[in-house]
Write a structure and sequence with these properties.
Length: 180
């Protein structure tokens, strides 16, 4: 199965600008400015969002390595499998980058069925088999065959927190061409 990966971003900021590339202190400072300055989805995040995000990234990285992944970054860049209309609503002036999964070395990309927060957070105790799981490319194809794309069966969030499949890109390649 070949699919496209999408990265959504605020057009005025640019693609692949990543809070995870900063220290936790710097990231929290920027998150505070986002909360104060605008009404986007990111402005609604809870106070412990960044602490949890860094924690979940560490967990995902460790699981990915245990499955043969070879991350080249400490923290991932984020993309999603196929288009997700809901993610477009997160931004005042949103845009996206679209790349074929073929452009990525499978050893630098992992997946969670849903965002990392329901995968590893409070929802992770609901018994769904894809909780607390990180998938390789070959594994996520089987999960998609079994469950489909969340943005198709749960586009409005009625059936749980899964709204898309998150892709964690553990390298600056091939996305480097989008850096400013």
């Amino acid at each position: 199965m070949i699919f496209d990966l999408y990265h959504y971003y605020e057009n005025d900021i640019g693609p692949f600008i990543n809070l995870s590339d900063l220290t936790i202190y710097e990231a929290k400072h920027i998150q505070g400015r986002i909360k104060k300055d605008n009404k986007t989805f990111a402005a609604q995040r809870l106070e412990d969002y960044l602490d949890r995000r860094f924690e979940f990234e560490d967990i995902a990285r460790d699981i990915f390595i245990s499955k043969g992944g070879e991350p080249l970054r400490e923290r991932p860049h984020y993309m999603v499998v196929e288009s997700c209309d809901w993610l477009k609503t997160w931004y005042v002036n949103g845009n996206f980058v679209k790349l074929s999964v073929r452009e990525f070395d499978p050893k630098i990309i992992s997946f969670t069925y849903g965002d990392m927060f329901p995968t590893f957070g409070k929802a992770s105790t609901d018994g769904k088999e894809y909780r607390k799981q990180v998938y390789t490319y070959s594994e996520i194809i089987k999960v998609i065959d079994k469950y489909g794309l969340p943005q198709v069966w749960n586009n409005d969030g009625r059936f749980g927190p899964e709204r898309y499949i998150e892709a964690q890109v553990w390298s600056n390649e091939p996305i480097r061409k989008y850096f400013f």
